[in-house]
């Protein structure tokens, strides 16, 4: 397996070198591995389902913009189902292309064999052309809302030698003092984001030292109460140069399942998604 990996890496390196030679021809060539072709009138949006259902029973959801469905459909037993709790659309590092301007955002629970679709919320949705956004469905039944933030990915273009992160808190019953986030392997596990309350956090991505391309080391990110050393939740990431990541904490403090506290269901979770 090691020899195979070395061989693949070798030929990939040759391919990249060859591409670099061809793309360097001509003064106007501007090749970027992250460059995408985006329609002049479209915005780019990620949809994240982090809302908890009645009594801690989770559900699927679909997003509509001006009554046009924007999220994909999973099919189970002949019924179209939406995006599940804790999941996102699109997957991986992709964004949906959405017509820009002053729009109306609607989120609903899809229909089942026995129930009709249920609208959870409608709200104004203003998005600008060629800009990136993440729109979260947040809250605890019946108080749902859409929380949309700007994703400025230009930081990675200014210094592509670094990795970039931010931290957003979407736990509806967060303590008033919020949460701290640290990275075990960096800065002696000092707090990177401090006292981040519900629907708070910095939209701006900050740089961290990346893991070398051929190394598989991971960083352990730790979620803690403010001033505490007790780890509430953690997540690992192999941060790569030029990449941009959003960390979120979701769930419910104390856990929640069918109206009762739970040690396993809807407990606070720390996770991330890749923006670029």
Note down, in words, how this protein is organized.
The protein is mainly β. The chain contains 2 helices and 20 strands. The protein has helices spanning 2-23, 155-158, and strands at 42-49, 62-65, 68-69, 74-76, 79-81, 88-89, 96-99, 101-109, 118-127, 132-140, 143-150, 163-169, 179-183, 191-196, 200-201, 206-208, 219-225, 231-237, 244-250, 269-274. The strands form 5 sheets. Strands 1, 6, 7, 10 and 11 form a 5-stranded mixed β-sheet that branches. Strands 12, 15, 16, 19 and 20 form a 5-stranded mixed β-sheet that branches. The radius of gyration is 21 Å and the shape is globular. The chain starts with a helix and ends with a strand. The relative contact order is 0.15. Residues 1-34 have low confidence and may be disordered.
What does the secondary structure layout of this molecule look like, with pairings?
Blueprint: H1 2-23, E1 42-49, E2 62-65, E3 68-69, E4 74-76, E5 79-81, E6 88-89, E7 96-99, E8 101-109, E9 118-127, E10 132-140, E11 143-150, H2 155-158, E12 163-169, E13 179-183, E14 191-196, E15 200-201, E16 206-208, E17 219-225, E18 231-237, E19 244-250, E20 269-274
Parallel strand pairs: 1-10, 12-19
Antiparallel strand pairs: 1-6, 1-7, 2-3, 2-8, 4-5, 8-9, 10-11, 12-15, 12-16, 13-14, 13-17, 17-18, 19-20
């Amino acid at each position: 397996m090691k020899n195979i990996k070395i061989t693949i890496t070798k030929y990939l390196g040759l391919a990249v070198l060859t591409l670099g030679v061809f793309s360097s021809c001509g003064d106007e060539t501007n090749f970027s591995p992250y460059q995408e072709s985006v329609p002049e009138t479209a915005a780019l949006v990620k949809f994240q389902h982090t809302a908890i259902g009645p009594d801690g029973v989770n559900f699927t959801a679909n997003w509509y913009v001006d009554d046009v469905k924007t999220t994909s459909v999973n099919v189970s037993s002949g019924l179209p189902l939406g995006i599940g709790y804790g999941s996102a659309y699109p997957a991986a590092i992709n964004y949906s292309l959405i017509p820009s301007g002053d729009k109306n955002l609607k989120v609903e629970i899809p229909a089942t064999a026995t129930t009709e679709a249920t609208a959870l919320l409608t709200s104004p949705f203003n998005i600008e052309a060629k800009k990136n956004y993440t729109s979260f469905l947040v809250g605890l039944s019946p108080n749902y809302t859409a929380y949309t933030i700007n994703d400025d990915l230009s930081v990675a273009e200014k210094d592509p030698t670094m990795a970039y992160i931010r931290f957003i808190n979407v736990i509806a019953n967060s303590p008033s003092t919020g949460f701290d986030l640290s990275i075990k392997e960096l800065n002696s596990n000092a707090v990177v984001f401090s006292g981040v309350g519900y629907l708070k956090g910095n939209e701006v991505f900050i740089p961290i030292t990346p893991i070398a391309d051929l190394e598989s080391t991971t960083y352990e990110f730790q979620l803690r109460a403010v001033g505490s050393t007790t780890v509430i939740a953690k997540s690992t990431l192999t941060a790569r140069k030029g990449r941009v990541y959003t960390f979120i904490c979701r769930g419910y403090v104390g856990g929640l399942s069918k109206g009762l506290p739970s040690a396993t269901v809807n407990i606070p979770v720390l996770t991330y998604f890749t923006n670029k």
